[in-house]
Design goal:
The protein is an alpha/beta fold. The chain has one domain: Sandwich (Hypothetical Protein Aq_1857, Chain: A). The protein contains three helices and seven strands; from the N terminus they run βαββββαββα. Pfam families: DUF779 (PF05610).
Length: 119
């Protein structure tokens, strides 16, 4: 099975630490304000989801959602959540730690696209 979203070991360690502090978590990537297309880690249920949000998968025990508009743009890519030093300007839970989550991406191969049912 081809996963649409992956997580690095470094990011997974941060997620585990945040989960210990804040309880169950979720991720959302809207491509909107603040850090633009940086993924935001929030307490599960803090962001109200609706029909404009697409569930991409689960990373480190957290559901990862993306707005429908962003999904249309990114659907041909596999995303990997990583972490880097530096304060972002979003409401994501890791920001006070002096780090931020970032997305790395790669375009799916032709074979992967066929498997996923994408043109």
């Amino acid at each position: 099975m081809i996963k649409r979203v992956l997580v690095t070991e470094a990011a997974e360690r941060v997620i585990d630490s945040l989960r210990e502090r804040h309880g169950p978590l979720m991720f959302h990537q809207s491509g909107g304000c603040c850090d633009g297309s940086s993924p935001m880690c929030l307490p599960e249920g803090e962001l109200l989801l609706n029909e404009t949000d697409h569930l991409l998968g689960n990373i480190a025990g957290c559901d990862f959602y993306m707005s429908k508009d962003q999904y249309e743009y990114w659907k041909h890519t596999q995303l990997t959540v990583d972490v880097t030093k530096g304060r972002g300007s979003s409401f994501s839970l890791e920001i006070p730690l002096g780090i931020r989550f970032v997305i790395k991406s790669r375009v799916f191969s032709e074979q992967e696209l066929e498997t996923l049912g994408l043109d």
